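Predict the assembly for these two chains.
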Amino acid sequence: MSTPNQPQTVAGLAAAHGKPEAYAYLDEDTKRNVRRAILKALAIPGWQVPFASREMPVARGWGSGGLQVTLSVVGPTDIVKVIDQGDDFSVNAVGMRNLISASAQCEATTSTPAATIIQSRHRIPDTDLRADQLLVLQVPHPEPLRRVVPDDVAALACHAERDYTPAWLDLYDAQARLGGPRTGADHPVLVAGARLMSPSPIPRHDVMRLNQRAHPILLGAGRRARLTALPPYTSVEPLAFDDRPLEPERPDGPCHRCGSSTSYRVPTDGAGVAALVWCCSDVDACGARVGAAE
Amino acid sequence: MMTANAFDGLADWTDGESLLPPPPLVSVRGVSHRFGPGCDRCVELTGEEAGTNRCHACGSVVAVHDASFEVGSREVLGVVGESGSGKTTLLRCLHLDLVPDAGSMVVGQQENMFQATAAHRELRRSTVVMVHQNALAAGLYPRLAAESNVAERLLGGGARAFTGIHARATELLSELGLQPERHTDALMTFSGGMQQRVQLARALVDPPQLLLLDEPTTGLDPSVQADLLDVVQRVTETLGSATVIVSHDLAVVRILASRIVVLHHGRIVEQGVSEQILEDPQHPYTQLLVSSRLT
């Protein structure tokens, strides 16, 4: 129950306690903790670094990890883009973009080339990022062995011994019984030939684009309180047998809007047509292609 | 191609039936394991004369004390004894599930396996393989396909070519009498006898130096048992590894093992060639064991 005397905003609450409002929502100690975890994660590519995940104004599992990473590194000169499944205008993306740009007094954009920090859920932008851009991915489950070992302790032992036989065995079982990997998204990857990592639930199309990127990728899992990072130019190989390489998704047709046959497309209804059509999942890149054609 | 000459027969004879005993592949020395706090008098208060393996001074159970034996390549050693005699503890030590209080195990060129620096999980895949009495309770993956369970040891060894692994796993399963259409079924849908065959195929896929068989035919009906014994015999002959079989069924041990170790109250009371032990037992406990056999 709020009364007229109680402050209604974070700024008002801070003023009521005689303190300046924290820049970028989080207090300085929290941001320092997250930054230290990010540095450690960058030093050990693919390793899950624990951090003190805070309560955020989004539910855990809704991007609280990615949000904490973005808020810890954002500055007033940054230009922020937030996408959800490739879309800039989904409710969660809009909410988080507003929170970041309002609390950090920075600019927001929907254009991938214009952004300096791109926070994403379930996709990597179709437009290749430059070395001066940063990609932040929201991760629900950072543990790649979650489905194949009984508990976290067993998974930790596997990581410590670099023994990823359970993951290979799962892959073998799926190949033998189903003729291909069981993972639709979130296919495990080997980072620097040594560490198994969950790349967040991005499609196989994007998993295959993770290798040797010019920009750093930070993966934040708020619910599990783990940070993982891929520094620039890291070798990232999807887990696959030598004679059964990972295959990307195969859409049934080119994009209904822009006509691209190389982008990652998803079946879409609505869009002014009666039947189910294939459209680019990355709305911004698709729009740019349509604009260039006109 | 070989040409027939006068030495052919001789070569066969020296290869197969050397007059000298084969050099031991596995050498186990003084393995002792105790459950409980232990005291100075544990050893003297337990064993044959005491008639128990529980130390009444401190309450510890001396499960195995000073067990030493050797197993040669292609040789099958039977370990017999009543329930509680230390068979399982000894086997768990050999399988590196338990690190014994004292003793050593040398396998091939490898030094004392109990103090190996390599991960025991890795050694259990490469050097020591156990065929469990209950496949689903220990070690195997009930939800995965039979052929995946066989492939696990190859994958652990670093094989990364699907076609090769698949061909080897299915070939072995077919050889041991499992129909190809069942190779991709989950292990938990298999009958007991079929699960034992999967475990044997798992051992065959990359011959280990030490094969442990824990009651491989217990709990199966007699016709399946006879069939499986045949397979076990074939496997132990083709593998070339040292085999230790633990069973309370003397008939099984008699068929498979060439030498027998008798455990009683955690001590080895008698060991020797199986015919000798079964026809002319020296120790009173062995005499009791042999005379109580149902024939």
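The mean pLDDT of chain A is 92. The CA atoms of residues 12 and 18 of chain A lie 10 Å apart.
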